[in-house]
Every structure is written in C-alpha cells, then in structure tokens.
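Pilot study result, target chain (632 residues):
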Amino acid sequence: MKSKLFTLLCLCVGVIFPFKYLMADEAYDLGQVLVSASRIEEYIAQTGSSAIVIDRKTIEKKKYLSIKEALSLEAGVDIASNSAFGGSTSVYLRGAPSGHTLVLMDGIRLYDPIATDASYDLANLMLDNVERIEIIKGPQSSLFGSDAIGGVINIITRQGKGKPSFTFSSEGASKRTFTESLGAFGSTGKFYYSAEASRQDSRGFSKARDGAESDSYQNNNFSGKFSYRPDENLEFGVKSSYVRAKIDLDDGAYADDVDFWTKYENVLLTLFSEQRINEKWSHNLDYSWLRNVRKYTDNSDQYWDTFKARGQEANWQHTVDAGKIFLLPENIGEFIIPGFQYTYETGFERSNYGDLGRVSANKEGYFVENRFSLNDKLFNTFAMRVDRHSRFGTQTTGRGTLSYLFDTGTRFKGSYGTGFKAPSLYQLFSLYGDTNLNAEKSWGYDVGLEQQIFKNRLSLSAVYFHNRFRDLIEFDPNKPNPKIIAWPFGMYVNRGSAKTEGIEAELTYKPIDNLSIRYAFAYVDAMDFTAKLHLIRRPNNKHFITIGYSPFRNLSLTFDATRNIKIYDNFAGNENNRLKDYTVCNFVASFRLNQHLEIYSRVENIFNAIYQEVNGYNTKKRFLHWGVKGRF
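Predicted structure:
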C-alpha cells in the first residue's frame, strides 16, 4: 500500500514540479489569514500545517446554511450523518476517529462533556455570524491539548466595525422547510458589535431508510460578539453562542418510530480581553462557560433519558516578539508564544433505566511555541505542551512544522506532531466505564508541494500524510463488568490501534477573472489493525469539482459535484459492509437586484441520487431552495 501511495504522490509531484522552470510573474499568493495553526495571525503559505480556510465570501456565494454543509466539500474532511435535519453528525479529518476532531469557536472549545467520546455534534450549528472556518489537519495537541489528536476546526465569528448595518434573509425549500435570519453589525464610538439569529423549521422526511412518517425539525441559533475598546491597545467584551433544537428521531437503522424525539440545547458564553502592552508583548485572557443538554423521549417504548453537562475553561496566552527584544535583523522574525489552559467539566445522566450520578474532572495545560521566519521565505514552528488530568495523569506532546517559498512560485511544506485524547467522563464513570483507562495517543506527519504559475491563475498542490493511533478506547461486549450482574455485560477498554494514510491533491484555475475551476482529490487508506477491517464511514476515494462563473456583474453561478467511492459501514454485525458509491451535484444561482437586495436559488442533489452516509439512514433527494437576502 505504501508503494502505491508513493507512486501516486510522485505522479502528483510530477504534474507540479516541471512548472518550477516557469518563473512566477508576480509574488507568491500567500493565501488567507488564519490563527489556528500557530495561535497568532499568519498567512496559509506561512504555515507548514495543512490548512483550509472557508471564508465569508465562499459561504455567501454557495449559500451554505450550516457548518456541516460548509465542511462537506473540502478534501480530507468527511461528514457522516444519521440523515439530515438534526441527524447525529460525525466529522473525520483524514480518516481519524470522529472524537479526535476538536471543534472551537473563536478558540474556545465546543463539546459535550457527557457524550460518549466528548465530541461536538455539528448537526444543529448554523453559520450565524461566522466570518470564516479554519481547518487544521494532523495532530494539534501541542497547542490545543486533548481532542485535537486528528485536527482542529475553528469557527471564527465576525468582528463588528464601521457604520451600523442590518441584514435579513428568508428562504423556502422542499419538505416545507423555511429558514429566516436577522443580523446587526457595526460600531458606535468605542463600542463594537456583531450579532445574528436564525430559525429553521421543516416537515422533514423519515430518517430511517425504510420509514414512512416524516421526522420534523425545529432549530434556533444565535451568535454574538460585543466589545469595548478604550484605546487601540485594549479590547474586552463578551461572546455568546446559543443552539436549541427539537428533532424527531427514528428507532435506528431501517426502523421507523412515530413518537421518538429529542430536545437539544447548547450554550457557550465567553468573557475575553486582548491587550497590547507594548510593541514587543501582547496577551489575551478569556473565561468561558458551557452548558449542554440532551433529552430523549420515546412514549411507545416507555423510555426517557436526559444528559446534562457543564464545562468551564480559562485561557491565558502571551505573544512575545523575540526578534525585537534581541534586536535581530529585519529579515529574521521570531515569536515566542507561551500559554496556560484550565478546564473543569461535569455532567450526569438520568433515565428510567438508571442514573449516572454527577461526575467531574479537571485538567490543566502548559504550552510554548517558537515561530521563526527568515527572508519571508522560510517559516518554521516548534511547540511543546504538558497536560495534567485529574483522573489519569500527565501527557506531553510536541509538534514541528516547516514551510519554504521558492522564487519559482513553489512551496514546500511539512509537519510532524504527536497527540492524545483523554477518556471522556462517560468512558470513565458510566455503568460501562473504567477509571483505569489510559489516554488515546497518536503521531503523524505530512509533506507536500504547491505550485503557482501564470500570474497565480493556476495553482496545484499535493500532500502525503500518515497517522498512527494506539490505545484507542473501544467497547468490549465480552469483558466481565463488576458493576453488572446480569446481561448486558461489557466495558470500555484500551485495545484499539489504527492508521490512516493517503494523498490530497488540488488544482485551481482562473482562466479569466469571472471564471474559476477547482478540482480536488482525496485518497484515504484507513485501517483498524485490531479488527483488521476498514474504518467505517470514510470514503476511500473522494473527488470534488467546483465551477464558479459570473457572466455579468450581478449574476453568480456555482456548480459542485462530489464523487464518493468505497465506503464501509456496519450491517447486521458485519463491519465490512460496503455502501453504494455515489455522486452528488449541487447548483446555486444568485442575482443582486441592487446594493441592498439579492435573490437566489439553490438545488441540492440535482440528479436525485439515492445514497447513504450511514447505513440504514436516508439522505436528501433532490432539494430545492429559493430565497432573498437584504443588507441595509
């Protein structure tokens, strides 16, 4: 397998490298700004990490409504949902287990402390007040601690500024689906604000593949940022995010249920301050409070279950310009970024089958990163972090990255890092938990090349990655459980090991200013060494095509096609059941009537493909959206 991957990488590089003999006609396009790769602002081309930025322009152009939709068309990011409209959603970065992706909002952790793997379900999070989404692939525990073992998704909210403005949108769609939103952005004197709220209602369709009744859905979202700047060196304020949804469920794969539903609520509140002490030293401090509630009710089965959890987190980060302190030459840049993080989490479960009493844990992390640059061509970082967990001990992780820009418009990048994931409260303390569990661990690396030519109208890239995981926490149904004297037995154990490796390649071409063509390819070989099976719900091959065209100033057209090949899932105890390959095509047309109003239409799954992301659950057939947006 490694030889095949190496051959494939060589083919990708063979396409890129001959262009080094064509001198770039202008400076290398450094790409967009991001903060997640090294915790300070930098351009994508200045980081050795594999990074993706989905900016507000892309969100508006493609008329995405949810975070899940925005992530679904990116190479190396796989989404699997138990149907649309609130179906449980898992994210796999480069094939890593779903609980190994850390979801952040403005650098603050979004998660469910009492969920089985403490992950965050993206099913109900809309794009309210979102400026951009940053995706950093590969182990990131050296900067972000537990759960960043496979990568990080950081959702950055808007910064209000300038003349006050107001936005609204109203959209109708198939299955009696309606979405409305209101927003306000701007500044008044030294007060800055951005806020947006939305609501979505849908009659829906059956989540179960063989179901007959429609599963309805209601969702409310709010996101806001409010700050005060007494001077240019100090800002402090509050950020908030609120999600509340009611979701009709079914009884599992292929099993309909007319009265099974859940209520979901997530609240995140953050107090923050950012201060520039002088030209050499700045710091930021924040405190966040999180609450997550899930309530399940099934009247026909006489079942109810409630999960409630809270989390508190404090972060203190400093940024020191060592280049200025040590009077380094202007062509040398060096920043030292130390920080501290403290987290406390608690939760409980109550059901008519038994309770999990309130349980809790706390952890603290200390990290430091060194970021070095030379001649605005060489960029590298080294980071190390020590985490202490109140229940299982101490973990040390590290990471190094390198990016080099050649005069020919070629960029080399690479990274290596280690990661860990702490056992969740549920895995430690539930009826099936074990307080002796160890942390899951990983290491991984990637290397890649990028090339820009023809005045940066054509760009190509290819990346090879390899990740290993050990001590994965799995449920063993055959292990005797001292807490249970009757069936079902079983406990969580550290026994899993896995690997993911593959190739990501992309070509973007802009032959004229109003036409862009993008092709991306991802190959992921994801294997469970313990079970000797493919890891489920990760496409082995994935192809993307996006064409954007604006025939005249006020009209924008976008076409997307995604091909998913070789996906495995569970079925009747067979974990090697292959799902049907499928292709999904989408089309968006928008027309700006004037500077204030825009009308648009979006068609999902144009050719009505019938497919499954998760075995036994429905996905959207052809789905038509139409709407209007306004800004005043």
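One observation from the pilot: The first strand starts at residue 33 and ends at 34. A full batch analysis is planned for the follow-on phase.
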